[in-house]
Amino acid sequence: MERASEALGATRYFEAVSLADRALRRAHAERDFLTMARVCLPLQEARRQIRQTALDAAETEGIVQLRHADDLPRPLRPGCCLVIPPMIGADGRALNRAAVKRRVPLFVLTREPMTQKLTWPMVSLAERSFRAYVAPPVELEYRSDRMVRDAFDGPIPIDWFTSAAEALGDAAIASVGRDLHPWWRVDDLLVAVEAMPEHEKLHQRLADACRAAAEIGEPAEDRRLVDGPNPYSF
Question: What is the average per-residue pLDDT within 150-179?
Answer without folding.
Answer: 96
